[in-house]
Write a structure and sequence with these properties.
The chain has 9 helices and 8 strands. It is α/β, with parallel strands linked by helices and 258 residues long. It has an 8-stranded parallel beta sheet. Helix 4 (104-121) packs parallel to helix 5 (133-146). The protein starts with a strand and ends in a 6-residue tail after the last helix.
Length: 258
Amino acid sequence: MFADSHCHLNYKGVFEQQADVLARARDRGVGAMLNISTRESEWDAVVATAEREPDVWASIGIHPHEADQHPHIDTARLVARAAHPRIVGIGESGLDYFYDHSDRARQQASFRAHIAACRATGLPLIVHTRDAEDDTLAILRDEMEQGAYRGVIHCFTASGAFADAALDLGLYISISGIVTFKNARDLQETAARLPIERLLIETDAPFLAPVPNRGKPGEPAFVADTAAFLARLRGEPIETLAERTADNFFALFDKAKR
């Protein structure tokens, strides 16, 4: 069984054919999907999908791009909403200095509010970071010193040194279809050596469709292609990688049940 640890089933490109997308995923052995939210207006729809589909769970959070538009989303609001039985994670949240769609100080404050919500609920944090390694790591470390929390670096594209630091903090690392791209040599080197017990796989659908699906809208079925590439890269049987990453998914997102 494969577990897609990060997808957007309510985004354009997937939502319009959600039933068919889910059917194709199940046909390829995808038995668990985490439907991620990025802004408050998505929360109801994301949770509704998880309520309807037994193999889909939900997260609630504010993407760093949206931080400026959500100053009212604080730890208390996240904690209250996270009580829903189908919500198993907090995020995605973090820092994105590549686009800078939101003020950096506002991104940082939102990120810390999400981490505090993780501590309060015991739910894992789903981290987005792009071109912000130093500040992301500084906040992760500072917040860990204030109280332990669990989490995952989603769609990992950072440096090997950042991966090592995240692992040292006890975090998981999730690999997307980017690892299959020809220009992803550095990522491939890092992915090849990640400890299997901290590894997750994802699609980030409808984005980042892996080879051989480049140019198509991403969908959870394609996590099987990313897993196949990753298994070859690591010299592991595909069955082993699928089983271990699925086990890791349910270990981290332990509010979800098989």
